[in-house]
User: Fold this.
Amino acid sequence: MLCRKLERVAYFFLDGTLDAKQKRIFSKHLKLCPECEQRTTIHRRIRIFLKKRLARLVAPARLKQRLTRSLRAFAD
Amino acid sequence: MKSAEAYEHEQGWDFEKAAMPYVDSLYNTAYRMTRNSEDAEDLVQETYLKAYKYYDKFEEGTNFKAWLFKIMKNTFINNYRKKKLTPHKIDFSEIEESYERVIQKNAPDLIKDPESEIFQDMMDEDVKRALDSLPHDYKMVVLLADIEGFSYKEIAEILDCPVGTVMSRLYRGRKMLERTLLEYARKYGYIRGQAEPAKMRSRKDETKGRKKKEQPEEEESETQEPEENEEEMLFADEEDADLEIEPEEEETEEFRIE
Assistant:
């Protein structure tokens, strides 16, 4: 029961949004439960993976030029 | 006193200076929303022109990046989703069950090489496909939280929904995305190696997982170590309630976590 409840807040633990008491309970449980520790590690690793892979796109230079031109044309 | 033209000109430069640093973030999210570069560029362009037009409505001291994202979200809905899509019917219990199947089988392999990327050989195209498999509303919260780093409250403002809904969608969206990535990883061989069979137990038996090494597994659920009693005390009903979420009820403020 405890593992299941903690699994439901594991993402929020990684977000750093659990309150101090919840965070303390969660952290303590991770030290005691290999399965929850393993799952939390996997969640963390997948999040890092996604951020790296999905943040790669940058706006094309032509878009930046287009925006600058448009904004200055509006301002003038 | 400045002329109206001079003021407007100054405001334009001020806006450009404030807004241009966010163009990559907006474009990245626009691309994930529209799924092609041409529409993404148009969406960002329209967002910037609208934001410029309403710049005087922006409240100083609030999050400018979030304000731009909110304009982009509204523009996207108006332009690209005029034909309202039928809300996705998701059997989330089925998703959780399939997640359990794949995670229990592969967890040891997923943590055994912590220095490298978890799915280092996965093609970007597969990552994109996994993201695109999410219903739009779930995809948006995951992108805004995990790629752009917005807080739950900021996402709630961008999407015009309660914080509880943001958290519920985050939970479900992340779970669905992980499930899909894990399935691709297994299907296409991105999970390498044959680690020791998982020590993991079924989550359904809900037993405590401690003292594994000292105890035969079949006795585990029956054994109550002194520390477990202590832990049970920590998770008395009141504390359980603190940690409880009800993902089935999406549109309510079910989360007590801020």
In short: The mean pLDDT of chain A is 91.
